[in-house]
Design goal:
With 382 residues, this protein is of the alpha/beta class. Among the domains are: 86 residues, Chorismate Mutase Domain, subunit A (Up-down Bundle), CATH 1.20.59; 102 residues, 3-Layer(aba) Sandwich (D-Maltodextrin-Binding Protein, domain 2), CATH 3.40.190; 76 residues, 3-Layer(aba) Sandwich (D-Maltodextrin-Binding Protein, domain 2), CATH 3.40.190. It has 13 helices and 18 strands. The strands form four sheets. Strands 2, 3, 4, 5, 6, 12 and 18 form a seven-stranded mixed sheet that branches. It has a five-stranded mixed sheet with strand order 9-8-10-7-11. A four-stranded antiparallel sheet has the order 15-16-14-17, sandwiched between helices. α3 crosses α13 and α12 runs antiparallel to α13. The longest helix has 36 residues.
Length: 382
Amino acid sequence: MDLNQIRQEIDIVDKQMVELFQKRMLLAGEVAENKRGTGKAIYDRQRELEKLKKLGDLADSEFNRHSIEELFLQIMSISRRYQYKILGDRDRYIESEYTAVDSLDMRPGSQVVYQGVPGAFSEQAMLRFFGDQVENFHVERFEDVIQALEENHAEYGVLPIENSSAGFVSGIYHLLQEHEVAIVGSIDLAVSQALLAVPGAVISDIQTVYSHPQGLLQTKPYLDAHDWKQIPLANTAVSASKVKQDGDKTQAAVAGIRAAQIYGLEVLEPEINTQKNNTTRFVVVSKRRIYTKEANRISISFSLPHESGSLYNALGHFIFNDLNMTSIESEPLPDRQWEYRFFITFEGNLSNAAVRNAITGVRSESGDFKILGNYYTKESEA
């Protein structure tokens, strides 16, 4: 056959495959309705593996075996997503975990906790999100923010979670996974890192620089060019406070301009971060598992087995439901070799049918699933 004839034959086969695929989806729908009556789970991993092997055994070559198994793995995955959609009203998981509210309760006198000291970027994020009407206090560690919420000393806590140039803040997602708190809001804060020192100091005096690890990362090229000793501390403003207290002209801090004003330091260089549009996302967390009508971003976490295609299949639920993922992060599970927990953020609201379908699918096919929060993001200039 010439090329045109071959292509015509392929078109015929493709048309037949489409017709058979649509017939298979109709049958999958009937399976879903049957499961509605019996309450049987949609996902049966053992049956899927047995079926893949049986289909692979029909192949006439090893290449075709792998190809057939991959093809039907996707067909079965699509079939499950279709069944999740049909049976979406059967799963009441979201209602059992989260409550929809009109708005966050941010009345005067509400207690808000942040990590660091006055002048920290966390304090700035807190003020930009809540305004100056709420009561606030600060703690030393990220863990202390969570503890203050759990012990009802505060209604809301503010934590940094991601920076546009230095990436995710270590340990925050793990805290959200391990504790019964929820993200109820977030704010993107433009962050300008400055080099601060005691009055009278000049750049040639500096030998040691202090800052939060993220502050050091965000200004690494500038600091490395000066060959200064770089020492991480708990917070950028804590670093500014130390430089002020020590009164040593050889010390400097990487922190914000507000910290210089609070602690009486001089700004030797006003903007030393590598990226000029340097932005840090802070999350607002609460013990109350709530979401508002305007919430437009969802964060979830889950673990997957160390098996071929497991992450691909999980991510397929977002593609199938036309949901846009904005970030993905992972951490190894300490007690399970080569297994990982994934943290994914995507756009949507928990009241949306497509979101519910995707969550049902991911939750059914993963372990340790948790909705970390459904929230809206405020943008703010420094």
